[in-house]
Amino acid sequence: MEILKNITSKEPESGWNLLIKLLPDDRTVVSPTYKTRWRIFDLNTNLNYTYREVFDTYNFILNLLFDLFDNDETKFSMLIKKSTSLPYEEDRLKVYNCAEKNVQSVVQKEYKPWNTIRGILHRHRSHPEAKWVLPENELKRLENLYHQLEPNSVIEKYKWLFDSYWPDYPEGNIKTGPDRLHNKKSSNERAKAAYKWIKELGLNETIALRKVIKNAGLLGEALADVINKEEDIITICKCLNGDNEDVKFVRAFIRRKSYKESFEWVKNLVNTLQTNGFNAKAISNLLVSVFSTRELWNFVETLPKELQDAYWLNEHIGYNIQSTEDAIYMISKLNNYHRYFSAIDVCQRAIQDLPTDLLMETLWKAVTEEANEPVHFDNYKLGIFFDTLYQRDDLDISFMKKIEWYYIFYFDSYSERRPKYLEDELAANPKFFIEVIKWIYFPNDRDKYYEDKQGIPKEKIMIIARQSKMLLESWYKIPGMREDGSIDGVRLKNWIVEARRLAEESDRLEVADMEIGSLLSRFPEGDEKLSPEEIFRVIEEINSENLNNNYSIGLSGKLRSIIREPSDGGTIERERADYFGKLADKYRNKYPIVSGIFSDLEQDYLARAKQMDDQAQLEGLEF
């Protein structure tokens, strides 16, 4: 306690923050951790504390805080907020007494105490049955403070209504009906506030508040409820050429107004703005504020081309799809305006009913043509695309292979999906496999690599090489693999023999063996119905050092990132060692080379297990 006294006397600001953090917080979430064991063997560190000691500590901290209080609104707000978490009524009452004594002296600039108390009142009165709720007599005292802190400024008095869709009312909000009733109440309160602002500040000053409040869109909606004169609407529409916040404000106004009026009102407003010299950008911002329907699109078709272009290129355009025909219309329009990523978003909403050629065309254009919008690939949406296309019977497989190639970044080693048709091509065609290899790896004569690719820009070579490497890393379908996952040994051997012959011709046998070894290691483990013996037989017959080494590395790499307790040691590694040890014993006579690979893996995992055991023993000394 004396240390706290010294800190607060020498460093009041830091002391205040420290004391506030020492008070309880009913919203704090903690996770249990290992308790540190101090190497002070002659001192008892397992101390217990009574409730009386806890009470006295809080009391001591509060007294220090009262002494440090200097009428700052932030500190006043922090103290009031913390008081609700104090477990003892006596401590809370002390805070209320201090607040009531100093409330008139608090200098409010941002009105933090007023807003904080309103939030407390709202939370506790909205959940009257909860065990943590403060008694009403205490809430009354807080409410009295709330009224004393109420600002005189008409702006500050109502600004909080526009901070959130769900404002904190001091009387609380006990929901007895659907959310729309609460929304209606908030809309009415905001409309009243907007009306008072216009009456006391004027329309221009009220519009300027969009820069002050947190949610400019809510002010736009409120103004739509109280403004009807054409000249006032035109004044608001001047924000259509502003920054993002201005556009958000005026779009909310137009959306709300068009909902209250009719589409005819929108058409008349467009004509009015054209007459008043508003540019294409402003009018497009108006149009994208309206609920997107076929009626709107038909109206846009009647406008000058400059306005049509501005509408379809507007980043805020809405995607309200009522039918498959609507989706096809919008996707075609977006593709025509080179907005392929927006088109992908629309496709995803009605993908099951869209024609296959339109889906493939959209995917293709997104990666082969320059877009009129920021490039953005969403893996979730791409997953839906490929899952849908792979189920289609009318798929152009040749075209689909090209699409898979350009989207190979999506089929990385961490993805659940595989490039189905490129996998099929690799597994069936060793020549294609070698062509891919030739993009990634140099032959022994490095100059020959670039001679074979003469005329191709170096940057493009690097891109294709990167794509080729990603394709091989995403390849899991082993040549000769049947639909049930079993292996046709003859087809596998023939494929490997031909691939190695072509690789030797291109001076890349070593790297081809490495990639084949990595592929063979991806055969699934743990399924008793699937026998890997056809793979073992090929490894025995070929007996390539590079193939064997990469097969071993691939098997070892299957144990990726894992979660373990500090005290677990090498349990996981011993389990893997046991697994490979049993395989080594099982195939020792039939496949001695493969058995040797398994034996080496067993010893490797046992060594790793010892390392993890030693690490766990060292860490155990620290806990």
For this entry, give a set of tags.
623 residues; mainly alpha; 32 helices; 64% helix
Secondary-structure blueprint:
Blueprint: H1 2-10, H2 12-22, H3 51-68, H4 73-83, H5 89-102, H6 112-126, H7 136-148, H8 154-159, H9 179-201, H10 203-208, H11 216-226, H12 230-237, H13 244-260, H14 263-275, H15 280-287, H16 294-301, H17 305-312, H18 324-336, H19 340-349, H20 356-368, H21 379-390, H22 397-406, H23 420-428, H24 430-440, H25 446-452, H26 458-473, H27 489-505, H28 509-520, H29 533-542, H30 545-556, H31 571-586, H32 592-620
Task: Sum this structure up briefly.
This protein has 623 residues and is mostly helical.
Explain the overall architecture.
With 623 residues, this protein is mostly helical. It contains 32 helices and no strands. α3 packs parallel to α5 and α24 packs across α26. The relative contact order is 0.03.
State mean pLDDT (0 to 100 scale): 91
Overall number of strands: 0
Q: Figure out the total of helices.
A: 32
Distance linking N and C termini: 28 Å
Q: Unreliable segments (pLDDT under 50, ≥5 consecutive)? A: none
> What gyration radius follows from the Cα positions, in whole Å?
35 Å
How much helix is in the residues?
55-70%
User: Biggest sheet, open or closed, and with what strands and sense?
Assistant: none
β-sheet strand percentage: under 5%
Shape: flat
Structural class, judged by helices and strands? mainly alpha
